[in-house]
Each structure stands twice: as structure tokens, then as C-alpha cells.
């Protein structure tokens, strides 16, 4: 009886690990309780490319900079092909998952983040 129970638990764990390998990184980060939410700032220089997963949507792969100056790549999808030239965005993220974003003026960006963005 105990062996069956342990075998069942082991099967559930292995199945969970296998499923997590096939789920996209954004989805994993969204539900991972150990990843903290934060705001990152990005500078959009180029126009978006068509998103292969969603027709009529465009994708921007950008380097996000948090308030302390650390960078990480994020992906923003939108129905807008291009933002105004040299637009700054503030994105609320959790790992690679982007909850929302908004266009901000350069004055609203922390100094450390602005230094990294303007390099």
C-alpha cells in the first residue's frame, strides 16, 4: 500500500515536471510564487514584428531596465505596429511575463534606469 502511494506521488511529480518543460517561460513566471513583480523601463527604437502566435498582433523584444539598473529581456505584444519614435515604456512584469505597460515621459524614469537605456 505504501509503495503504491509513493509511486503515485512520484508519478505526479514527474508528470508536473514534464508539463512545465513544455509550457512557455512567460506562463511559468506568471504563476511562480517565488518570482517578484516589478516595474521595468524600456526604450522602443524599432517597429514591432508580426507575432507568429497571434495574427493581427505585433511583438517587441526589448531590454527592460529596473530601478536599480539591472537588465532583462522582455517581450511585449500589442496591436500597434510601432510606437512614436524613441518611446519610453514602463512595463509591470513578473519574470518574463508582462502584466501591462504604458508610455511614459523620460522625466518619469529613475536615473539609474535612464543611464542604462541611453547607452
TrEMBL record:
Record InterPro entries: DUF1093, YxeA-like_sf
Pfam families: DUF1093
UniProt keyword annotations, A-Z: Membrane, Transmembrane, Transmembrane helix
Keyword Transmembrane applies: yes
Record field: transmembrane: 6-24
Protein name: YxeA family protein
Organism (species): Caldibacillus thermoamylovorans
